[in-house]
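Look over this record as teaching material.
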Amino acid sequence: MFTKEGLEEINKGLKTVDIKGKKYAMVNERVQAFRELCPGGCIETELISNENGICVVKATIKDEENFTVATGLAFESQSASFINKTSYIENCETSAIGRALGFAGIGVDESLATADEVANAIKNQDEKPITEKQFNFLNSLIKKANVDPKALAKQYGVESFMTLPMNRFDELKTRLEKAINK
């Protein structure tokens, strides 16, 4: 049953993952805790929309008396990551479940977000292409370093530096600055 004492006890036993100094519960940990806390309860999911590679899923957490304890929504884009190309609906469902369980009070000592959500957000941030300002800055460095931009882009696995992922920007910037200062 969902009592304050029950939630406190169940949350003490949850395994967490440390991401940038904060502890986050994985969705599977939250689901196992829910099953222990409320063995006769259920987790229901509903695909709210799925259009143009973007889906929204709603998860509902119900107790043994079929009372809705909490709901959670999640959004995923098929183009957000390599895994999402084939599994964006599944990832969305998992996120919605994790959020609903978080709203129910399971695994929320430090954060409502799950470890999966935080790790995915960090990964997606790193995979985003550089900004126009960063692109222009790199172009100025490439000219100063007198480097063939097409050959350099090929080394970084991109057609154009406009599609260079954020997580490669500093590496390329440092490389070009060293070439200029030789």
Remarks:
- The longest helix spans residues 84-103.
